[in-house]
């Protein structure tokens, strides 16, 4: 009698069902990671869940909550705005969540608008009390103070938009915005230096250098000018002039973390990776996660310092938090 038992090699056991993870599996993993306060893992799992089930707004809402918890309020609102655009009538809680994020950003008038929208659309909603409390908190009775906050809110809106375009190297979009910023808020000095940067990388190199040199004459100790001129002369191939500013920069140790990041990024951009590496190592990562430039230039620096694993880890985390980073090549490519 012929043996009826077939070899199991290459065959599938009849009681084993092939498992292909769907969105709900990744979502549950993301929620567990969030509950354990493993926020980076939570973002990774939830992003994967959304890729599998892009029409499931609950996944996107949970991702926005993680962004809020980590202080990435702008990213949280981008996710929530997408949910409202497609599922607004079903997910009215998004209006309150957006209002809460705007309040954290200091954009109080936007916060009031969305809190009122929430109360109008869901007068007995789960966040009724929180929305009313938020409105009470940001309600400003004094007219002069209100005008002050309106100006502050407007400046912050400009800052958010300019930061968005500058981080993504979208220079042509940034230029008119920065020009308008400089006109409306002449005391906000960062705008004019960012304008020079956008101008330089848009191809108007000579004009950008002339502007920055003039500002440096007016304010010789300006860190913005030293950083910009180091980068401009480096890219223009004027090594001696670049070296002059790089040397000055290597002896500057700012207290402000945003300025610390600016120095580190500048040193990386001009190829001073040893000095840049020293600066990046000392930066408070937890407070700079919203900066694409932190991940990009720290990753490039680590790669050039012989740390490919760290470079890849930073790049992958940066792409996860800032998807547009993936369009800028990688740390192993010339930037």
TrEMBL record:
UniProtKB keywords: TPR repeat
UniProt TPR repeat ranges: 23-56
Cited InterPro entries: TPR-like_helical_dom_sf, TPR_rpt
SMART domains cross-referenced by the UniProt entry: TPR (SM00028)
Domain of life: Bacteria
Protein name: Tetratricopeptide repeat protein
The organism of origin for this protein: Pontibacillus salicampi
